[in-house]
Amino acid sequence: MPSRRWHSKSRLGCAPCKKRRVKANTNTARGASIEALQAGIVMWDSNLSVSNDISSLSPSMLLLTKSAQCEASLIFHEAQQYAFARQALNALSVLFCQGQATGSSIKAHAWHLKASAGFHASVAGKVISTYFSQWIFGLATTVFQIRLCVTHPREDAIAETFHLLRGTARLAIAIAPRFLQDQRLAHDKTKDTGAKTDPEFLDRIKLLKTNIRMLEPNEEHLIQAAELLQTWCVFIQGQPRTWLHILSWPALVSEAFVAQLQSEHMNRSAALAIFLHWCVIMSKFDDTWFLNGWIAQLAQQAWAQLGGGWESTVIPAVRALQLGPKEEIIKHYSRKE
């Protein structure tokens, strides 16, 4: 039996490529960033002044409460003390400051991978860290993944979004007691903004629940998800303003709802209809750099995949989101009936 031709063994590949026993494609952002990390050429970028960039990033990134924003100085202190927090923020700085510039995606991925390695080491107890540095990493990672959804769209973006937000919510729950005890932070209650939930929107949720009971009578998790959406909408006064608002509904819905939302085998149109109504409220979030285009993209994907006679139920939501075609919005809603 002839021996296999000699070849050098590379240790630069990513885990998925090694598992598939194929050569990593370093032309992609992920492949190239791994190669750069392993080669040791990813260095602190002197053009990314953390003290300056954090001032721009933190108010729009942390969104802890409207009345108690964490000061940039506190974030800067944590970033200086803990490398993985600094690296996570650096990944965002690249995206924030350099946008779509050539090589920015590769550089951002490189920082993100280094931050992830450091974070996992801290969770395993190999590196000492604080709850706040872990929270910075968690939010920075969430923001990073949200931007990837926009710049590198995927077919399973809706399912990925739910896993992402639910994971961040678990981290938030884990560190919440320490956050509330931290004397460096103000913990004033979020003030009533005076905003009121649109009664017409709440009526549409009621209609949605009625249709679910008629078309999906045995799917109690769908009714629960719609009721949670209604309660969430009233709680946030019709406009999300903080991370608590962003994470609440995805974190509260059942695993059965999430499974149906991402299933390729069962009818998921009812779940997508509920999701589209969440998108309507999320689209009212104040203009924030990392959310730009995110909700619109998720909503368009949900609208394209929705079927099973649910189109007429979501037409008002589709109009509110200003979504495109789908047979020219069902032939201009059947010529306005």
Q: Secondary-structure blueprint of this entry?
A:
Elements (H helix, E strand, L loop, with lengths): L14 H6 L8 H11 L10 H13 L9 H10 L1 H16 L5 H20 L7 H21 L5 H25 L17 H17 L4 H16 L7 H10 L2 H8 L6 H14 L11 H12 L5 H11 L4 H11 L1
What does the model show?
- This protein has helices spanning 15-20, 29-39, 50-62, 72-81, 83-98, 104-123, 131-151, 157-181, 199-215, 220-235, 243-252, 255-262, 269-282, 294-305, 311-321, 326-336.
- With 337 residues, it is mainly alpha-helical.
- The protein folds into two domains: 42-181, no CATH class; 199-336, no CATH class.
Q: Which percent range describes the beta-strand content?
A: under 5%
Helix content: 55-70%
Q: Please give the largest β-sheet.
A: none
The global form is globular
Count the helices. How many? 16
SSE string, helices as H and strands as E = HHHHHHHHHHHHHHHH
CA radius of gyration: 22 Å
Q: What separation lies between the terminal Cα atoms?
A: 75 Å
Any idea how many domains? 2
Tell me the structural class: mainly alpha
Can you count the beta strands? 0
In the predicted model, the low-confidence regions spanning at least 5 consecutive residues are 25-56, 63-69
Mean pLDDT, to the nearest integer, reads 74
